[in-house]
Amino acid sequence: MATTAELFEEPFVADEYIERLVWRTPGGGSRGGPEAFDPKRLLEEFVNHIQELQIMDERIQRKVEKLEQQCQKEAKEFARKVQELQKSNQVAFQHFQELDEHISYVATKVCHLGDQLEGVNTPRQRAVEAQKLMKYFNEFLDGELKSDVFTNSEKIKEAADIIQKLHLIAQELPFDRFSEVKSKIASKYHDLECQLIQEFTSAQRRGEISRMREVAAVLLHFKGYSHCVDVYIKQCQEGAYLRNDIFEDAAILCQRVNKQVGDIFSNPETVLAKLIQNIFELKLQSFVKDQLEECRKSDAEQYLKNLYDLYTRTTNLSSKLMEFNLGTDKQTFLSKLIKSIFISYLENYIEVETGYLKSRSAMILQRYYDSKNHQKRSIGTGGIQDLKERIRQRTNLPLGPSIDTHGETFLSQEVVVNLLQETKQAFERCHRLSDPSDLPRNAFRIFTILVEFLCIEHIDYALETGLAGIPSSDSRNANLYFLDVVHQANTIFHLFDKQFNDHLMPLISSSPKLSECLQKKKEIIEQMEMKLDTGIDRTLNCMIGQMKHILAAEQKKTDFKPEDENNVLIQYTNACVKVCAYVRKQVEKIKNSMDGKNVDTVLMELGVRFHRLIYEHLQQYSYSCMGGMLAICDVAEYRKCAKDFKIPLVLQLFDTLHALCNLLVVAPDNLKQVCSGEQLANLDKNILHSFVQLRADYRSARLARHFS
Description:
There is one protein chain. By secondary structure, this protein is mainly alpha-helical. Among the domains are: 38-125; 567-706, Methane Monooxygenase Hydroxylase, Chain G, domain 1 (Up-down Bundle). It is 75% helix and 0% strand. The chain contains 25 helices and no strands. The protein has helices at residues 2-6, 14-24, 39-142, 148-151, 156-172, 175-206, 209-219, 225-236, 246-261, 268-293, 300-321, 330-346, 349-371, 383-395, 413-433, 439-469, 482-508, 513-554, 574-593, 597-618, 625-643, 648-661, 671-675, 685-692, 701-707. The longest helix is centred in the first third of the chain and has 104 residues, at 39-142.
């Protein structure tokens, strides 16, 4: 049986169990093993093993039945014990309820008894208190204070409590009968009050916070409590202003007081607020007055700088003080304190600002013109000037004598930067110092001053002077400086526009003044663009005039009809060389003077006029075969020059002109074929005919016949 038990292993697998049994049985191995296979012996072993397993099963079954019986018995015993415990718990709970009811009953009785005792004791205590007060009152009535509470200085707290109560009682007594005793009580009240304040002062100097708290608590019921607070505030500020920065000193003082005031007074927020009020109304107001009154009438620039600086530092101090507990509406409280200091200065701030800005701007401009030894000429206004302006716009004629500016544009970026810097500072001061309701209106006033001095007195004056300095189109060797004016005016207006967006827009963005400012800016831009367009147009006319002079002076009739057709050594004419050099110089100047689409627009206009000039110029001459080839070379050079424009239309015009020049040299038999080519097919026949007529051999019957 022990051997059978040994064959069981965990986990139990039947196949492995049989294998182990067979392996242990003699003759149970394979046929090829050392011991021959014996099936009978193996069968016998299996039968015996089955019997052993049956016996083991019976034994285990009996043991299981015994354990089940024992378990059932113990379960019944456990259930019985649980029932007994439940019964005991119910009994205990009933006892607890009874005890709770009894305790509640006793507590009710005790509370009732306490109320009765209190009802008896309170009148008794009041009577005892009244008796004591009557005793002390009699001492004042007799004129001799014998009680220890009045003679012992260490009992000043008790004496203060008594005298405070006696003082209240004395207020109710008739004056005619008790005037003397009332006077004595009042005198003692005043003496004790002074002693307490003196004690508080001494404790503050010694730094004894606990003693200060005790004395402050006693003084709380006295009339002199506010005087105690005043003494505390005064002593807090002793030696507090040692630096050069009164605002930083005030902030540090308030932070220090904020940490200790709650340990001394029962109403710390009121005391701290009173300290801040004292700082603003005495220290800061006096400091601000000293700083501003000194330069208010004598130096507007310094006055505005000081006002802005002091107001900014005061508001920054106010922001720091917002961290403290000052009561319910500390924002309004601090705003009123700031207003009380600066109200007399802020009422007329914008008048001072605009007056200073006008005088400063005028001085900057005058200093610049003086450095140029230039006396500003007045630009006329009114009906006659308007009429001249309209005539000039429509006819492009220079009205009035031309002014030689000697190359001076009368525009200065340094002047502009100074004006914009002054205006920027004015906008910053306006933002800080103006009332929110007045801010858009004040900002608009500053903007109008900027427009007046920068746009009208400086830029517009320079444009008018530049227009007057543009020579007539038939002038020889004219110096064209108006493009320099255009370049500088463009740069300046970009700076003006940037300040408009960066500094003015935030101040007026949510007010009706926004549309007014935008409209004014639009009018200024349109006015300047109109003058710039006029000046550029007249400058282009002058450029074309210069080209005409070059062509008239350098181009000879023999260039295109040489006497010796076989001895032409030049590739293009001298007139062409000089015109192209002049055009390239002007194109470069235009590109440097403008930006964006303006460059393309002006270059296209110049290119069209340049083409018209060359077209009309070529039609003035008669061309031999070799002269026609030279004309083609000239136009090819003009076309190469036109490529610098980088304008497709201009290049196309010169391509067409180059094709037209081919009509000057093509064989008569090929004229019709050339005229029907891609570049000339769409041209008017009269244009083609006009070029063919320029040929020296045009009058030959053969050429006329081929072109008819």
